[in-house]
Amino acid sequence: MDYAERDTGDEYAEGVPCWADAMLPDVEGGKRFYGELFGWTFDEGAGPEYGHYTQAYVDGRAVAALAPKADGRMPTVWTVYLATPDAAALAGRIKAAGGSMVTEVMTVGPFGTMGLAADPEGAVFGLWQAGTHRGFGLTQAPGAFCWTEVYSRDKDRVDPFYEGVFGYRGHDLDLSGVAFRTWSPAGSEPGPDTAVGGRQLFPAADAVGARSADGYSTPEMPPHFLVYFTVADADATTGAATRLGGRALMPPTDIPYGRMSVIRDNQGAVFAVLQD
Q1: Can you point out the beta strands (E) in the chain?
Q2: Distance, first Cα to last Cα, the chain
Q3: DSSP 223-243
Q4: What domains are defined for the chain?
Q5: Which residues pair with 56 in a beta bridge?
Q6: Which residue in 61, 51, 39, 111 sits closest to 81, CA to CA?
């Protein structure tokens, strides 16, 4: 099967997902889970000055990272980082547009500059201004990042925020009853072929206990980003995740762009897998 594997270059346009990491209570446990699930290998981890940050690799190319939670009150979660040439300027635009900075912009040694932001509904995403760490070394290949989307309640608040801050070009889709909007980088022709992420709406707020047409989201969920990884076989990967102590929040399901499932790992971090 052709996965349209991408060996990434040195530069990401502003707003393009360029990295993802998981904050976990137990990084060694995470290495065992994701190492078996995706075939990831890991470096020895950075020193204490960088929070013992541990990068994951597929065929020697960086695909993600695992980091220990510095505080048990922090969420166990996957975070996607959006590229920017100027993190400080981007943070200013985020605040001016009604978002906020959860973690103010900071320099991470020679590796780059990062921050954590929240959109007007509270969905958290990262900012990354590259230094020596450029971001993903591989995408759109088994075990590597392939997609992200934000789950939102009010498109009239969220769409103008992202499209104003990043200059995204929006394109609305109806995916089997799911109201979905794809976002393409500034200057590109909007549509699925150029999209780098998207926005999906939760079920109606008065439909408590209901699930949306995607089979995953519920009205009670907080707004959030969902990070996707490519896999060769969504059913086999979901079965393996369950065997390793994870849980399928959405069983393998056919969608117009492949077959996907949503998984909670054995420590509580949620992600999705997509078979092209």
Answers
A1: 17-24, 41-42, 54-58, 61-68, 77-83, 100-108, 112-118, 124-130, 145-152, 169-175, 178-184, 197-201, 224-231, 247-255, 258-264, 270-275
A2: 8
A3: PEEEEEEEES-HHHHHHHHHH
A4: 17-130 (3.10.180.10), 145-275 (3.10.180.10)
A5: 42, 64
A6: 111
Fill in the DSSP letter of residue 220: T
Q: What is the pTM of this model?
A: 0.93
Of 8, 25, 115, nearest to 62 by C-alpha is 8
CA–CA distance, 221 with 90 (Å, rounded to integer): 27
- Distance (Å, whole) CA 148 – CA 226: 6
Q: Identify whether the C-beta of residue 97 lies closer than 8 Å to the C-beta of residue 75.
A: no
AA identity, residue 208: V
pLDDT in tens, the chain (276 residues): 233 444 544 579 999 999 999 999 999 999 999 999 999 999 987 777 777 899 999 999 999 999 999 888 889 999 999 999 999 999 999 999 999 999 999 999 999 999 999 999 999 999 999 999 999 999 999 999 999 999 999 999 999 999 999 999 999 997 767 779 999 999 999 999 999 999 999 876 554 444 455 567 887 899 999 999 999 999 999 999 999 999 999 999 998 889 999 999 999 999 999 998
Rounded distance, CA 138 to CA 124, Å? 23
| 217-221: Cβ within 8 A, 24+ apart | 217/151, 221/151
CA nearest 30: which of 247, 251, 244, 273?
Answer: 244
CA-CA distance, 123 to 158, in Å (whole number)? 10
CA neighbor of 248 nearest in space, from 238, 258, 240? 238
